[in-house]
Amino acid sequence: MDQIVDELVRAAFNNQDKLAVRETAVESLSLIFHPKALNAVDRAISGSTFPVTSRFKFLVALKQQNTSDAYRIILKYWVIKEWPPDPETFPMDIMRKEWPSELGDSIMEQMNKLLGKDEMLAVLMSSWPGGVETTYKTVPDGLKDYVAYYALMVGQLGGREAATLLVQRLKEDYPLVQPAAGAVSSIVRPGMDPYAPGPGGVPSEGPSGNEPAPAVVSEAVLKEEIRFRVEAVKVLSIIAGENLLPFLQYLAKNDIKPEVRTMASSILGTVETRIAASRDDLRQAASALAANRFDEAIRLYKQAYEKNPSPRVTREYEKSKLIIGAQYLAGNRKAEAEPLLKPLFDALEVKVYQKLPEEMVKAKMTPEKQQVMAQVEAKKQAVIDDIKAKLSANGLTQAEIQRADPNRFFNYGIEKGWLVEEATLMEMPPGEPGGPMPGQPGYGQGGMMPAPAP
What we know:
The chain has helices at about 1-10, 20-30, 35-45, 50-65, 70-75, 90-95, 110-115, 115-125, 130-140, 140-155, 165-170, 220-240, 245-255, 260-290, 295-305, 310-330, 335-345, 360, 365-395, 400-405, 405-415; strands at about 350-355, 420. By secondary structure, the protein is mainly α.
């Protein structure tokens, strides 16, 4: 098999051969479950050796493998990794109109089965570092539909990050089939309150008078928009928290399209049931935490969050992870503490610490050693202060922060390698901050400790 794959790879990337011959070689590689073959197909899709239409054919061929490795490659190209998209890789007209139907929504179920929701979500979210909502606001109008459908896919997988964008899309004007005076809001009918409630039921601000008029489109495009909004409401039944319940109630009564009103009405009971169950979970979680039943408490807080990812419940869940993670750490249950505490270390703005050079540890106390020790302590304290600030920002009281013991957090961060050790004084080159110690060549030539006075 290795020899066959090697020959096909040579044929695929032999620029002397005709395009049709090279395409056939890549399509053949797409059907072979072999590391070299998969790498070659990935290379053919990601590079500029083949035209975009050919690369789409390779992705379709990969689907026939029906393996997790093949779907990982497909998933890589299902999203745009940089904005604006590279026209060579994804020309806008191709991206919008000619993405193969064989790789449409229908393959999500199989990808989910082979890869799992967590892996799919991780790939999708990592490909949009600015976030779904930010991307939607910044891309050209011609690409907003693409971002919106991506958000729908994330929501179908349970990604709560999609909720805000889907709500925003549901508030936008429907496109018009015929030119008409004035805007037709997606959630307003004549004679009704023109402003839909924002998340949590707080009225939105009125229009500034400078909003663009709705687009004029074909009947088919309008039907597709309605279908999208029905699906968006269905997804919100999975990921919406109690803060969005008033908006869904408003849609059920006031959207101008009966299909959307019907879907919103049908999912209200589901959302209300989830919210009620999450409140029970929160009460039980608080009781378990007060009784130091930490395993039970974190399970119940997570349940409450999954049922009702509202800002209030999210804050309670994030706070509980830090409190319980600190208790796990105190009880030397480090493996269980890690997933609860890692996000805090990722969010730290100050991660650099410094150790006392080994040569100084046992040395007699001198003014120079005192100075270095003070610097080391200052570096440590800066990190600990940042840890305290992040704990406070997550809602922990001063008593809870003290009980969590930020010093223990600091030592754990060093142990896990989540904090960055600054080059020690002994390691710094002459003339640099933190340079050589007294008695070494270069001491006093620009290091942080001054040269002896002449």
